Amino acid sequence: MTMGPGGDDARLSRTLAHAAGLALLDVRTGHAEGKELKDKGDARAQAVLSSLLDYHRPGDAVLSEEAADSAARLTAGRVWIIDPLDGTREFSERPRTDWAVHVAFWEAGELAEGAIALPARDVTYGTDDPPVVPARAEGPIRLAVSRSRPPAFVTQVAEELGAELVPMGSAGVKCASVWLGEADAYLHAGGQFEWDSAAPVAVARAAGLHTSRIDGSPLVYNRPDPKLPDLLVCRTEFADTILAAVARHTPAEVS
């Protein structure tokens, strides 16, 4: 029996993310390496999500990193925004665990629900049961950044704030590090699209975290151009401080 619309969209997002995660773990047990492993992971997770959405929500539109875009989503009231494998590089580097599956649901202009699975850590976070952000220990602000290409302006912001940089893969993993208390903020500019942040932002909002563009403006999804190059996800008590520091170090790569 299919799940109905409305409140069950949150539960479905978790089910989808978990199912794609299991498929990715299966792919990872094979003999493929490097680009072949990345390509197999992308294709398998996309196939699982596409099949499940076709079955459970055949009338909804979909925006996926691994599928051709369709202008039909721009007039649709219900859109799923998915990244079948976020952190493809990390996925291909066994035994790394900092990769994810993103499933977000957008309705009538807003992110409504979402879930991200961290399959190699055997956990899925979703808006149906939002994570509880732990109390913060004393110490410098910790900024989650890309382990391979942290934006230069983040280093400048960190120096001004006396912050510590915490490198890791996957945008979803970086967002999760904030609601898990492993970092205080994820600050990014350049090179992202809606599917990179939609699901993590939905979960972060449900957990009570601050989410915005790096100029403080709202994150808007399901736009004609899916590029969404920058974001800030952080503990609410640091939002004003980080945004003020960012304003003094305007990153050239933001467009």
UniProtKB/TrEMBL annotation:
Q: For this UniProt record, give its keywords in alphabetical order, as a comma-separated list.
A: Magnesium, Metal-binding
The record's annotation in CDD domains points to: CysQ
Task: Name the needed cofactors.
Answer: Mg(2+)
Q: GO annotations under biological process?
A: 3'-phosphoadenosine 5'-phosphosulfate metabolic process; sulfate assimilation
What Gene3D superfamilies does UniProt report for this protein, alphabetically?
3.40.190.80, Fructose-1,6-Bisphosphatase, subunit A, domain 1 (3.30.540.10)
Q: Which GO terms describe its molecular function?
A: 3'(2'),5'-bisphosphate nucleotidase activity; metal ion binding
Q: Name one Pfam family in it.
A: Inositol_P
Describe the reaction catalysed, as an equation.
adenosine 3',5'-bisphosphate + H2O = AMP + phosphate
* Keyword Metal-binding recorded: yes
Q: This protein is called what? A: 3'(2'),5-bisphosphonucleoside 3'(2')-phosphohydrolase
- Which organism encodes this protein? Kineosporia babensis
Top-level taxonomy: Bacteria, Bacillati, Actinomycetota, Actinomycetes, Kineosporiales
